[in-house]
């Protein structure tokens, strides 16, 4: 069931009790869990935070903590799977789900008391009505049973055993009514009922298929938890900044459309102005401030030379085709018109002249239309504290992403999760700095990979979609988000350079081997370029293709467009997918 | 002058090097080494006394630098010995804060008798201080309980290793698994933090 009044129905419920918080591996979830931790610390509620990566992780974490906790909070996980069936919990365990993934599983929506979904039911689209999916089928069965038992009664009249007394009474009660219809008519009625039932079932299947066909994202979890903090009057700049990072992640990784993002911006701006006016030290230069400004979609441009930042940002790079020689020349033209000397453009942003730095944004904005990069401007927030630190929300997102996927031999994914969580503290600036450096490496690697692959024409077309296969495991690309970024860049780059008319309409499937020993590879599906909405149909498509080709697919992650399968099954799977999508 | 082909003060230096090598634990008290250094001091001192008395009788100032040199060597040995003893006593004091008023058996073997007495006396004075410090409440505060002055009732900790089930005072069972983060009452988890199983997140 949905809980809208988070303060009373959710928070007040939990005060004084022990909670298990299960967090998925994405930045929105990390930000939401940090805000929750801060809230729980104010009220001295004992909690336990467990990071998990997929459905198996969720099961394992729940299994370990099973007997101890009565309240489980699932952050950005578990909304799309039937929790009660998956985890088989005890009767008194309550689950609170705060998940940005959609579509939410209908069993979770219509559960009575065990599963509560935090959110506004009216904002959700297309939830099937209760009657169309769940039919109270007991009544029907009873009728049929009594029908048959009525028959049996007539046939065996001498079964006067004690245990069938009740049955006898019932059937005797109903018998006078039933005996009015002849046997044939009863039969007819049963057939009619069965046909109606089958019709209802097929209708239900159709509705369910439409409902679960596309997977998309709803409101950011971090923002929702921040609003809870606001209602409890326990919000402050830090929590607001974490919420901003959460929703920026949704925009930058393509999970929500820019329209939805702009709507949320207004709410966030009101929070920002309210909190800035509340603190009374805003006149000191070194106070922490969040400011709203129009910014550029250039990756980490404050921490990099301008040329690098332009080259490695997907939007600018693909519009100007910066991996070709002609593209480089256009970049130089752009810099020339902006009045930015090449010497300065090649140094780190912070080493540029002050005058140039101040004018950089306005110059790019002016020339954006001419160079065909109009969407490079977008509204976002910047955090500045102290005299040296000034970070845009996008910087945080990329840094956290790089930290989260920097899994090495001695550094498990959970370590990376904890490090990313720590990097959100303002005190641990060096973690954030390390993350930014890592993010720079990741983007440079993505660009190089795209450049080499496009020149070698490694993006193949399979009729109804493109596919791109990486041959060996890569330090960066064996993880879902990095592979996703690479695939998006690759698709847009390919579309920009290819002359086929249908190119903007075709999706891309990218795979990368995960682990040479086990032979598993990671598969990511990206929506076509022309599609504006981030609705992704790959979840269902993968499932059906796997069924058709009888391959075992591991749809473990909570993002349905990312799956794992065996390297050897890859070709069969792709063939089945081709057949499916034509 | 001493015709022996050795340097002054190298035995004392060796004592200190040994101590430095085992920087956290207390190595066995090097009875032999200390005795050798003391003998060396005595030897130097005797030579100096002999020479000084001959100067008193002859008035010859030409060997004055040699006297100074021996005196300096003597003082260096003395300093080294004192440093050795002081460092050991420092480590014994930290023993009290880490392990409590009873020394574990294997460490006790490494200490010599005066050092054990030093430990006991230190324990006694610490107990008297703690008793007096909390006298306003009627009972002493146990200062050795917390590593730093506690700032809050509950602390946030991260689990560094798999520990299994841990029971709190009110019966709640916490399952401590590697890399899970918890928020627990400080007093009960302090011992785990000290053992290193949980890491305190500031």
Automatic annotation (TrEMBL), chain A:
Cross-referenced InterPro entries, in alphabetical order? CDC45
Q: Where in the cell is it found?
A: Nucleus
Task: Classify the source by domain of life.
Answer: Eukaryota
Q: Which UniProt keywords apply?
A: Cell cycle, Cell division, DNA replication, Nucleus
Q: Name one GO molecular function term.
A: single-stranded DNA binding
Positions the record marks as coiled coil are none
* GO process terms (BP): cell division; DNA replication initiation; double-strand break repair via break-induced replication; mitotic DNA replication preinitiation complex assembly
Q: Which organism is it from?
A: Drosophila madeirensis (Fruit fly)
The protein in question is named Cell division control protein 45 homolog
Q: Where is the composition biased (Acidic residues)?
A: 138-155
GO cellular component: a single term: DNA replication preinitiation complex
Similarity section? Belongs to the CDC45 family.
Region entry Disordered, spans: 134-179
TrEMBL record, chain B:
- The main location is nucleus
Q: Which residues form the DNA replication complex GINS protein PSF1 C-terminal domain?
A: 151-201
GO CC annotations?
A: GINS complex
Q: Which CDD domains match?
A: GINS_A_psf1, GINS_B_Psf1
Q: Where is the GINS subunit domain?
A: 43-132
One Pfam family per UniProt: PSF1_C
Q: What does this protein do?
A: Required for correct functioning of the GINS complex, a complex that plays an essential role in the initiation of DNA replication, and progression of DNA replication forks. GINS complex seems to bind preferentially to single-stranded DNA.
Q: What is this protein called?
A: DNA replication complex GINS protein PSF1
Q: Which organism is it from?
A: Drosophila madeirensis (Fruit fly)
